[in-house]
Amino acid sequence: MGGQPMFIMSEDSQRTQGRDAQSSNIMAGKAVAEAVRTTLGPRGMDKMLVDSSGEVVITNDGATILNEMDIEHPAAQMIVEVAETQEEEVGDGTTTAGVIAGNLLGEAEDLIDQDVHATTIVEGYHEAASIAQDAIDEQVGDAAVDDEILKQVAESSMTGKGTGGLTAESLAETVVEAVRHVESDEGVARDNVTVHTQIGASSNATELVPGIVIDEEPAHEGMPSEVEDASIAVLDVELGVRTGDVDAEYAIDSIDQLNAAIDAEESEVQGYAETVAESGADVVITTDDVDDRVSTFLANEGILVFENVGSSDTKDIISATGATRVGALDDLEEADFGHADRISAENYGDDDLAFVEGGAAAETVTVFVRGGTEHVVDELERAIGDALDVVSTALESGEVVPGAGATEIAIADKIRQEAAGIEGRKQLAVTAFADALDVVPRTLAANTGQDPIDALVDLRAAHESEGRAGLITDGEDVTIGDPLESGVVDPADVKREAVESATEAATMIVRIDDVIAAE
User: Fold this and answer.
1) Could you tell me if 188 and 395 are in contact, meaning their C-beta atoms sit under 8 angstroms apart?
2) Mean pLDDT of all residues in 130-156
3) Catalytic residue among 38, 59, 61, 473, which?
């Protein structure tokens, strides 16, 4: 090569190798986990997130916080992905998963400083994670998951989150009722439960609507605002004068020709209106425009019409009412009609809403969330969304475990016991995994004003003697007790997913010893 240097990367590329790369990645992951740690538990604090345009989000939801943060470091992004995976799979436990991942990285950093190879750490972490899954299975409660336990799951999920003037207990009843509504022999159709927010009243006005709520107003102010026992036609039809796709001009030579053209147009419009009226439909939903003359005629006939309804709302209406979408007015038959117990149009300040309730084919239910400000309804929507997810998860799996840090205490205890039988340096990694899990009860204690070390010691002692111990928060009082007896429970799948996703992210980051970044 004649002594000439060979460049295989751009001169502007930056490369970090070895211990420096590991340290940088671990530090980034720990920093992200630390950002959400104080939000954990019933006494968790909120974060105010302000973007570049001045938009403000106030929340203590881990997934929301991490999504809103402007994170660029690739390793830190992996912790964000942990929260996203947790949210997608089970709907809650995002903060727990992120915090565990961050502490697994912290323990790995200490082991690397002790010259434990990254591969050994990864092997130990995976073995510990397998033990952890067995420990979670052992913590599953024996009682059948009935409505009372589902309410406890929902309440545990929402306690400490922004629920306005409502208590988590009262909201839990609404959440369980909503999930039960979409339960069938095939499972829980979680997607059939929607949350619709509306600013302008106390959060105490939040209610369950057995149907759907859409942002629509009647096509004519003279139409009825409410229709009982409604027969609903869903159309992909423009109820107005047909227009061609090609520009054309028509020469009119006399007043008689003009009158004939006007009469033809009126006849066409009148025909549309009469066809709809004679079909027997009480309510018409169309994805296209409705001519003013048609809407006036239909208003006089007492028919309620909503025009230019979006595709998503139209699908929801079809799902809720059992209607069949019709593409040509001549094809409209009574067999195509959907049915609802009640359809109403209501005004909320500057907003008009349509409520489609009941019906033999109803498959959708809506939690209609009210609140005095946008920040209140947004946080309430997030809290209810998480609760709906965890209740659905618990109902489908039929498995719940104690919350309040008790499951993490039990997992760490079992891992330490199993670690004694593991040979070599891998034992250090397995034990470090158990130490990382202690972050959950320690953080819960710190967030409730307790000394985290003293609380951890007391929890371990109570676990040894009683078999189950967590930090129970009741108002201002914090005690150590059995979470199952106190109604503090989580779906087992939330814990399983948190351990699995946190382990995968941490081990992936630990194995990186070379970072090549292009400018």
Assistant:
1) yes
2) 87
3) 61
